[in-house]
Structures are given as C-alpha cells and as structure tokens.
Write a structure and sequence with these properties.
Radius of gyration: 18 Å
CATH class: Alpha Beta
CATH topology: Pseudouridine synthase
Number of strands: 11
Largest sheet: 11 strands, mixed
Order of helices and strands: EEHEEHEEEEEHEEH
CATH superfamily: Pseudouridine synthase
Number of domains: 1
Mean pLDDT: 92
Helix content: 10-25%
Shape: globular
C-alpha cells in the first residue's frame, strides 16, 4: 500500500492515499503513521515515525515523515518559520475572475464543529490565512464549469484551501462540507508538491506527485497537468 517517493536515514516522503488518516485515531485501524512504523519494523529498524504535517482523510498526496527526533524538530521549525513549501492541485466549481492571484482572509476555526469560517474582524481564535493560486484549465460540465487550480499555501490553517475558495463561491468539487455540490468524489484536493531543506544534509528536497487519473482530475488535459511539473512559481510575472 505504501508508495514511497524518497527515503534516507532521516526522512520518508510518500503518498498518502485518499481515505487514509494521517495519524492514529480512536476506532480507526489504518493510518499513515502506523503503516510506516510497520514498514520500519519489517526492515529491522527502529519504528519511530515523526508526524510533521497532516492531510485531511479525504485529501491525498505527498507527505513527509521523519525517522529521528532531530529531523522532527528541524522540520517542525521549518514549517513554523514558513521555510517549507506546500503546493496542491484542486478542482473547484466555476472560474476565478483572475487567472492567478493571492487570497488573503481572516479565518476562525470552530473546534466543536470541526469547521472553519472566513470572518471580517480579528478577535480571539482568528488567524490570518494566505495562499496563491493559478488556474491551469477550465472545462464545461453539465451544470457549469470546473477549474483545475494549482495552489501554494503561505499559511497552514485548518481546511484553508477549502474555506478560502468556498468563501468566494468557488467550492471544491465534492466538498459538501463547504458547499461543493458534486457527490461523485470526495473534496477534489491533492497534495502535489513538497519542497524543503533536508533537516540533516542541508540539501534541497523537492518532490512532486501528479494527482491520480480519476474523477474529477481526469476531466482535464494530461498534457496541461504534466506541464505544471516544469513550471516554477505559481504567480506569473
């Protein structure tokens, strides 16, 4: 089940499948941390696995895990200091008015509902949220349009991409929690790229994984999606 993209003595970069939890939870029998611990045991290694970041259950794609406490600490600091690049691909209802841009909002997380909201004023529990995006392609569907967008996070708020696009009436396809109308899939969000300085060797680790050829990503041109691998920054000059 594990799809490992890169591994050394300090870190493992792999693909989290859609539907699998990032970490253990009561009543659940499968998650990435447990799977990786079992993988290390089979290799006769210490079964330590450090959780650096999380993806929602219904989001798949690239994740990095650490194999030592030192690597955990250094990668966690990199994320806190925003020296860690996270990029996603998402399919949204409609078409943004601008082909590329930066979205900035104030967001509040309601922990009792496990749901986040864009709000107008700063108050207790509210945090700034920022991302940049570029539209890769837009296709016509039965009830309108779907757009494939590439997204780079500046901040890591709960459900941030889902909430920021939904607040602009551009919800993710399949994301019923935030206004998506299509029930043929889960929220169409894929962790496409991670880039960071290796916590021990100080070399650049830059790994991409295209979304699976399944609905709704399969509605878009393979050539256009693959072209993204050769592009750099999201905001075009």
């Amino acid at each position: 089940m594990l799809n490992i993209l890169y591994e050394d003595k300090h870190i493992i970069v792999c693909v989290k499948p859609i539907g699998v939890l990032s970490q253990p939870a009561p009543g659940e029998d499968i998650d990435m941390v447990t799977l990786l611990k079992e993988y290390r045991k089979e290799k006769k290694e210490l079964d330590y696995i450090g959780l650096i970041h999380r993806l929602d259950r219904n989001v798949g794609g690239v994740m990095v895990f650490s194999k030592t406490e030192l690597a955990t600490k250094k990668l966690s600091v990199a994320i806190m200091e925003r020296n860690f690049t996270k990029e996603y691909m998402a399919v949204i209802h409609g078409r943004p008015t601008e082909q590329s841009g930066i979205l900035k909002d104030l967001m509040f997380k309601d922990s009792s509902k496990n749901k986040s909201f864009v709000v107008k004023r700063m108050r207790k529990g509210v945090k700034e949220a920022s991302l940049e995006y570029r539209v890769i392609d837009t296709v016509s569907v039965e009830d309108g349009e779907f757009s494939l967008v590439r997204v780079k996070l500046h901040t890591g708020r709960t459900h941030q991409i889902r909430v920021q696009f939904s607040s602009r009436k551009l919800p993710l396809v399949g994301d019923g929690k935030y206004g998506g109308k299509d029930n043929q899939c889960d929220a169409a969000l894929w962790s496409y790229r991670l880039a960071f300085v290796h916590p021990i060797m100080n070399t650049l680790v830059d790994i991409k994984k295209l979304p699976p050829e399944q609905y709704p990503f399969c509605l878009f041109s393979d050539e256009l999606i693959k072209e993204e691998e050769n592009k750099g920054t999201i905001i075009e000059d």
